[in-house]
């Protein structure tokens, strides 16, 4: 008998009762701003470098802002920076550009 031909073991019936499992979400950045008894410290990331983002995240700020409007940050660069800071307990925000991509004259 091949593995594919073996009979399936029956699954237990699903219970109509569900166990109550408390789910606590982390406080949002807004919640932290409202509850803070001191100013939250952060930095703007304008380099486009994941290495710089990780160094700043390791310095212990409360927040980091990845600037896509005034800095050379492509979507790929933002993704790389978000991945670099993910292991750190820092709130990361991204300021997106408001218009289209700027046109660079050929010359």
Calculate the mean pLDDT score and round it: 80
In the predicted model, the low-confidence regions spanning at least 5 consecutive residues are none
Spell out the helices and strands N to C: HEHEHE
Number of helices: 3
Order of strands across the main sheet: 1-2-3
Query: Which sheet architecture does the biggest sheet show?
Result: 3 strands, parallel
Quickly list its features.
single chain; 107 residues; alpha/beta; three-stranded parallel β-sheet; 25% helix; 13% strand
Descriptive notes:
- The protein has a domain at 40-98.
- 25% of the residues lie in helices and 13% in strands.
- The protein is built from three helices and three strands, in the order H-E-H-E-H-E.
- The protein has helices spanning 29-35, 50-58, 75-85, and strands at residues 42-45, 63-67, 91-95.
- Helix 2 (50-58) packs parallel to helix 3 (75-85).
- The chain is extended, with a radius of gyration of 23 Å.
- The model has no long low-confidence stretch (mean pLDDT 80).
